[in-house]
From TrEMBL:
Domain of life of the organism encoding this protein: Bacteria
One Gene Ontology MF term: heme binding
Gene3D superfamilies membership: Cytochrome c-like domain
Positions with biased composition (Basic and acidic residues): 23-44
Keywords, comma-separated and alphabetical: Electron transport, Heme, Iron, Metal-binding, Signal, Transport
InterPro entries, A to Z: Cyt_c-like_dom, Cyt_c-like_dom_sf, Cyt_c_1A/1B
Species lineage: Bacteria, Pseudomonadati, Bacteroidota, Flavobacteriia, Flavobacteriales
Region of interest: Disordered: 22-54
Cytochrome c domain location: 57-157
Protein name: Cytochrome c family protein
Signal peptide annotation: 1-22
Length: 159
């Protein structure tokens, strides 16, 4: 008789962990960008690593498109590099110059200076513009989204 409550508890635990695990995964895969826009406290490790300051802006479309980049890039001065370098102050700089970030040889050797024209080319097709780049991102093709994103980057990556 004693084993019954124990078994019931075990079953509960198993069910709980299965549903928790499944729920969390879904969250990470599908809702990540939205997550960053909310001001709620998140305690999971994954979210803490991703959550950072994504500056507010009147440019709502630009900020929304930037959520695609935010998993890999901070923009606020002093924040750490993520998978990609912190983009603070990058406009007007030579590509591949951020300290403490290990770039691909391809990007460093391409000799790009970041301007509205070069960033547009990069955004349209990163791997096409710089074959061998480490930036695993398909790009942003719609001109309207590019315009908004570039305006947002100009606004929020200034020192
Ligand atoms: C999956 C992660 C990832 C995503 C998403 C991503 N990037 Fe990157 N980005 C990188 C990496 C990694 C590099 C370094 C590339 C290299 O060394 O070849 C990089 C480099 C860059 C650079 C060059 C920085 C420099 O110092 O020269 C710019 C600009 C940039 N990304 C902008 C963006 C923008 C804008 C978006 C969103 C539209 C974006 N990235 C999305 C990972 C990412």
């Amino acid at each position: 008789m004693k084993t019954l409550p124990f078994l019931a508890a075990l079953l509960c635990l198993t069910l709980l962990s299965v549903s928790c695990g499944g729920g969390e995964k879904k969250n990470q895969e599908e809702v990540k960008p939205e997550f960053n826009t909310k001001k709620t406290e998140n305690t999971s490790k994954e979210t803490t690593a991703v959550a950072s300051t994504i500056p507010q802006s009147e440019n709502k479309l630009g900020r929304r498109v930037f959520l695609l980049c935010a998993a890999c890039h901070n923009v606020v001065k002093g924040e750490p590099h993520k998978v990609g370098p912190n983009l603070n102050g990058f406009l007007g700089q030579k590509a591949g110059m951020k300290e403490d970030f290990v770039y691909s040889e391809a990007l460093k050797n391409k000799g790009i200076v970041w301007s509205e024209e070069t960033i547009r080319e990069w955004l349209t097709n990163p791997a096409g513009y710089v074959p061998g780049t480490k930036m695993a991102f398909v790009g942003v093709q719609k001109k309207e989204q590019q315009d908004a994103l570039i305006a947002y980057l100009k606004e929020v990556t200034q020192d």
